[in-house]
Amino acid sequence: MARIYLGKILLRWCDSCHAPVLGRTCACGAPTRPVAVTPPGDARPAFPGDIERVNRIYHEHFGAPLIPEGHLALLNKVPSEDRMDEIVVGGAVVGAIRYIPEEQRWEPLPRPNAALLMQPMKRYVVVDDGAVPSIRDKGASVLAPGLASIDPAIAPGDPVFILTKAGECIGVGRAKVDAATAEAMERGVIVRTRKNVPSICVPGRATWEDAIKANEQILEEYESASIQFVRDVAAKNPLPPTISYSGGKDSLATLLIVRKALGPAPLLFADTGFEFPETCENVDRVAARYGLDILQISGEEAFREEFERRGPPAVDDRWCCRTCKLNPIGRLIDEHFGECLSFIGQRKYESVRRMQSRRVWRNPSVPQQLSAAPIQQWTAMHVWLYIFREKAPYNPLYEQGFDRIGCYICPASDLATLGMVSDACPGLWSAWCERLTRWQEEQGLPPDWVERGLWRRRGDADEEGDSYN
Ligand SMILES: [Zn+2]
User: Fold this and answer.
1) Is the pLDDT of residue 196 over 80?
2) What's the whole-number mean pLDDT along residues 46-70?
3) How far, in Å, is the centroid of ligand 1 from the Cα of 91?
4) Which of 37, 241, 331, 425 has its Cα between 20 and 30 A from that of 7?
5) Last residue of a domain, one of 166, 198, 230
6) 381 with 336, same domain?
7) Domain that holds residue 228
8) Which of 198, 232, 266 represents a domain boundary (last residue)?
9) Residue 397 lies in a domain
10) Which residue, 392, 350, 395, 394, is CA-closest to 373?
11) 37 lies in some domain
12) Considering the domain boundaries, does residue 17 fall inside one?
């Protein structure tokens, strides 16, 4: 997969505080070191639901959990066929989890540093001492003559740990054959070793409170720059200020900034009819907590009509944003203001399109709305540390392992996420699948069109449609 840079990777680590730091020096005074995450590098905290999932995947495969208790863990989404997240502990990528859509399951992809955190109880091979240097130092494959023993559970394709007779991990890789075959082999490759980039891992216990402290000054700098931006935009554009609130973390951080910069401003919320119940609750909760009005509009009826005509929205035919968000928001603005200034939680680290977006702009579909992005330069870690610092009521879906909160039927979602939707809200998801199935039958589409998620893509047209936070 191509490496995508949306900005400088800002993630670094303090080995004294055992915490992520978004600058070269930690608040404790210690210098920080870079964390070698794959770009774009918009890492986020691993929440309890994420940790539970990662540990379950590692436990099932290796007989031991990866993320130790009391340690800060981060997840970093990387480009892949469907969904893959790197796992950062101790300032190093210690592994990844990758979703395999055809098998509807996750596989664990450990890095050698994982062995600093866990002792694999299964799916490992032990090699003779003579084979160690070439495997450890040159990334050579594990060959039949160098094999001392192999765990009987190993099947071809399995990710495995490569250990010495003394139990030291010298590499990781993928088994080429099953255990029985390997034991009978006299020559040939048993494990294809993963080329390893050496990295430093210093495990240690810390809390998110420690991480906030470690980033104290950085958070203040980002906050005051964003507050200044909001004041400048508002001064240059004397329009009624509003906050586009979606129930997600970025719009929550934006709300906190705008409130500090300008005082209370109403929330604009377009309910597409496909919001998670937690999202609607969060909108109410946030409005109540900060004493803000909610200007809400529903796009549900418009969605129904458009679906009848065109079928479900797709990544390359994303009519839903215009129909359920942009147009209704335009009507809402007409009704209340005529014209307004809206602060939106757009960030450049989200996508190429967002990176290229200006920080103040007008969407041609909603000319009566001047949009501005106070946290354009923030990474997801800035956003989270800031939300934690402010003890703001964020959407509980993040705790369950969702990393983006939008419509639960979003065609831009990967299948891993849609699987999580189906687990979290089986009733809502099956109602959507019934709707898709009716369309599939009416249009004579292939029988696996719904099940394999083919509805998410029409064909070959432009990748992204209108988008809106
Ligand atoms: Zn420190």
Assistant:
1) no
2) 98
3) 12
4) 241
5) 198
6) yes
7) 215-456
8) 198
9) yes
10) 350
11) no
12) no
The Å distance, Cα 110 to ligand 1 centre, comes to 27
- Establish if 141 belongs to a structural domain: yes
How far apart, in whole angstroms, are the C-alpha atoms of residue 171 and residue 121? 16
Q: What is the rounded average pLDDT for all residues in the chain?
A: 94
Cα 353 to ligand 1 centroid, rounded to whole Å: 35
What whole-number distance in Å separates Cα of residue 382 and Cα of residue 432?
Answer: 35
User: In sequence order, what are the beta bridge partners of 19?
Assistant: 14
Which residues sit with Cβ closer than 5 angstroms to ligand 1, an ion? 14, 16-17, 26, 28, 30, 214
Ligand 1 center–CA 47 separation, angstroms:
22
Q: Who contacts 23 (Cβ-Cβ below 8 Å, separation ≥6)?
A: 10, 12, 32, 215, 217, 218
pLDDT at 333 over 60: yes
Cα 410 from chain centroid (whole Å):
15
DSSP assignment, residue 128? Answer: -
Q: Give the model confidence (pLDDT) of 129-156 as tens digits.
A: 999 999 999 999 999 999 999 999 999 9
Whether residue 351 sits in one domain with residue 381: yes
Q: Supply the CATH number for residue 437's domain.
A: 3.40.50.620
Which residues make beta-bridge pairs with 340?
369
Ligand 1 centre to CA of 16 (Å) is 5
User: What's the CA-to-centroid distance between 275 and ligand 1, angstroms?
Assistant: 40
Rounded mean pLDDT, 117-127: 97
Together in a domain, 157 and 246: no
Average pLDDT of the segment spanning 62-74: 98
Residues sharing a CB contact under 8 Å with residue 448, sequence separation 6 or more, in sequence order: 454
CA of 17 to the centre of ligand 1 (A): 4
Per-residue confidence at 357, pLDDT binned at 50, 70, 90?
confident
Give me ligand 1 centre to Cα 210, in Å.
9
Report whether pLDDT(459) > 80.
no
- Domain at 150, CATH number: 2.30.130.10
Tell me how many domains the chain contains. 2
The alpha carbon of 215 and the centre of ligand 1 are apart by a number of angstroms equal to 9
Cα of 20 to ligand 1 centre, how many Å? 9
| 404 Cα–ligand 1 center, Å | 29
